[in-house]
Amino acid sequence: MYITKTDYLEYLFCKKNFWLKKHKPELFEDIELSEFEKKIVEEGNIADETARHLFPEGVLVTTHEQEALEDTNQYIDTHEKVIFQGAFFVDSFLIRADVIVWDEILGGWELYEVKATTKVKREQLHSHIKDIAFQKEVLTRSGLSVVKSCIIHLNGEYKRRKDISWRDVFVIEDVTDEVKEVVDEVSMEMDEMKKAMNMPEGSGCACIYRGRSNQCTTFAYSNPKVPEYSIHDLHRIGLSKKKLEAWVDEGVFALEDIPNTSILNDKQALQVQTYLSGEPFIDRDKIRKEIESLEYPLYFFDYEGYGTAIPEFQGYGTFEQVPFQYSLHIMHENGEIEHREHLVRQKRSDIAGSLVKQLAEDIGPKGSIISWHKSYEVGRNNTLARIYPSHTHFFEDMNDRMFDLESIFLNQLYVHPDFKGKTSIKKILPVLVPELTYDKLSVKAGDQAMERWEYMLSEECEDEEAIYHDLLEYCKQDTWAMVKIYEELLALL
């Protein structure tokens, strides 16, 4: 069994999960990547490929396994100055280096790691540094001298123009000194990994001290005593490390076993209270105040968007989402409801022009605009205002009139034990409106909608009409779900 840089990063995150991947791969067989996760992998590959434009004289190792190792050695022996995806295997460790460049002046190799990210947070940068330090150590153990270490990442300030300048798309950051600071530590961790891989299976995993959203894939397997709904699901418990660690060390996992609920913050306490009582908490007065602040007609509104690492359309930046679809349910004061929608069907430089034009016709000058998690819609409006400056006032006005229906649940004006601390529309809807479901739809999530739209516009697509219909139905369901949740709130008053 060999160890890759992905294995190394997995080891740093959760040693038990790393061990299970090597010894019990069947645990991962039924775990399918979401469309969003697949997209992240795809974008990483695209960034890696396009970054090669920065080194036009490079040669690419296209083979695999033993053949890739032999081809890499041949390129080194024939003094190729730039090698993409060079393969190196030594002492159980295997890497494919994104880019290595021969430095004639320093008499050694420069190592470049491509990341499909823009500006990263400090803890993420530390992970990137250790990633490239791992690769440097493998190269060093293979007999190569690494004289420089760099990270190539995307330029968050870049906006797509007709002609792409790859020097503008990417930023090269020299992290040689940072890598030197951690390389000894990384070398020790590599040796520890080899030992850990050959040890018997241990119990539990480090993720027991993390909130639910920051746990490994095999958490349930490694921690069978932890209930499906536990202390790990409490509101922002990951930020209360001392609190979580104390409970875990005491063997407290179930919400009903928390010994001292007085140490919970208000949101956590209310979450536990509703769970223990089995009854929802509803602050009718505050909900009424929120609803009475809304002005008819009510526009229940939702965008679907598409973003890529290398912006595909003019005016858009790295990972900046292009709104390609919207759904709009309009509720009038007399109770009448009408539906409007738009879905972009053609790729062109002015990709959202038709959408903007119709949206400006569909949304009138008065009335509240209701969304779910409104920061997404507000962000898309800001992008469209920049690209279509003649509509700036329209989009600014939309944002001023925007009401976030999720805020009712985020602010805990309505807390139900079956929400399990979550506030996404797909967690709230089954509880309040169980008869309305996404299960029968062909498109069930936003990341899937993005993938389907991309495919629909491709030359390979053979079922455009079916996908077009599926996308319309999905987006329509999102806004209709908001209508039905709103009606449920009204019925409480």
Automatic annotation (TrEMBL):
A Pfam family reported for this protein in Swiss-Prot or TrEMBL: DUF2779
Annotated organism of origin: Candidatus Magasanikbacteria bacterium CG11_big_fil_rev_8_21_14_0_20_39_34
InterPro entries given in the database record: DUF2779
DUF2779 domain boundaries: 299-424
Protein name listed in UniProt: DUF2779 domain-containing protein
